[in-house]
Amino acid sequence: MSSEQNIDQKEIQKLYEKLKKEAEAGGYHLNPDVAFAQELVYGLLVNEKRYGYWSCPCRLASGTKEEDLDIICPCDYRDPDLNEFDTCYCGLYVSRAVVEGKKEISKIPERRPPEAERKKTEPKAEGTTLSALPYPVWRCKVCGYLCARDEPPEVCPICKAKKERFERFM
């Protein structure tokens, strides 16, 4: 029996409701086409069973979490896509204008760099006084939330991305 057959409608509905509540609490919106949004939620659940994390259902995941951190929902590209195109790449998250029927969703270009170009680089804070702070500064790579503490939070209070989605800001 495949992992896809182990996902029932109740599980999809439960995650859909959770994502919708979290999105709205953070100022985001799920696609108003509920059936479409639930198909994407189904894809997240399938990928969670396959890989152990919610990789974007519209992108090919490597199966290695460290390589796929940028496409774990909500992906690093969600906010730039929403700002420029009023929807994220897969269409799960949309702008208020889409929810209100003022704009329609259209195809958008893939923002994720090709695999050969994806390199993990530590951001540099040259010429700054941030190094004088008593705590390191952590930045959520999804929404940009900053915090100064010993370790990043387990979950971003803004977009709900998990701890591994934070990078040391300096």
Would you mind describing this structure in some detail?
With 170 residues, this protein is an alpha+beta fold. The chain folds into two domains: 3-111, Alpha-Beta Complex (Ferredoxin Thioredoxin Reductase); 130-168, Single Sheet (Rubrerythrin, domain 2), CATH 2.20.28. 30% of the residues lie in helices and 8% in strands. The protein has five helices and five strands; from the N terminus they run αβαααβαβββ. It has helices spanning 9-25, 34-51, 65-68, 78-85, 96-99; strands spanning 29-30, 93-94, 137-140, 146-148, 166-168. It has a three-stranded antiparallel sheet with strand order 4-3-5, with no helix packed on it. A hairpin with a 5-residue loop joins β3 (137-140) and β4 (146-148). The chain is globular. It starts with 8 loop residues before the first helix and ends with a strand. The relative contact order is 0.12. The model is unreliable at 121-125 (pLDDT under 50).
